[in-house]
Amino acid sequence: MDVINALGRRKKAIARIYLQEGKGEFTINNRDWKEYFPTSILQYVIQQPFMLTNTESKYDLKVNLDGGGITGQAEALRLAISRALLKIDPEYRPVLKANGLLKRDPRMVERKKPGQKKARKKFQFSKR
């Protein structure tokens, strides 16, 4: 099996992954994944596609993460892993789709408008 690459995005975060058969070793930006994502919730988010398809510790993963915050990066990585697993075996599609792992979350930060304090918040109005 060759190296399979995939891309995942969430907010401003971009995850580029390279997936190949192995023992289940993850490296994210040349660091161990448990060191990069220290909380158990984020570790669960990353493991989700592997757990749903019963492919834990079957593939080695090399990840380049860029931009965004830690949660956006974790969710971008989850999308990239799901897309890579689909390239390996299209049979995984119904399971991944039913759990919402193939949809790119389109929500982005709303821009700040001129004449306002923030995107929606206005300056205090004074009638007199």
Quick structural overview:
By secondary structure, this protein is α+β, with helices and mostly antiparallel strands. It has helices at 33-36, 40-52, 70-88, 93-98; strands at residues 4-10, 13-21, 26-28, 31-32, 59-66.
Strand-helix topology:
Blueprint: E1 4-10, E2 13-21, E3 26-28, E4 31-32, H1 33-36, H2 40-52, E5 59-66, H3 70-88, H4 93-98
Parallel strand pairs: 3-5
Antiparallel strand pairs: 1-2, 2-5, 3-4
What does this structure look like?
The protein has 128 residues and is an alpha+beta fold. It has a single domain (4-98), classed as Ribosomal Protein S5, domain 2 (2-Layer Sandwich), CATH 3.30.230.10. The protein is 33% helix and 23% strand. The chain has four helices and five strands; from the N terminus they run ββββααβαα. The chain has a five-stranded mixed beta sheet with strand order 1-2-5-3-4. Strand 3 and strand 4 form a beta hairpin. Helix 2 packs parallel to helix 3. The mean pLDDT is 92.
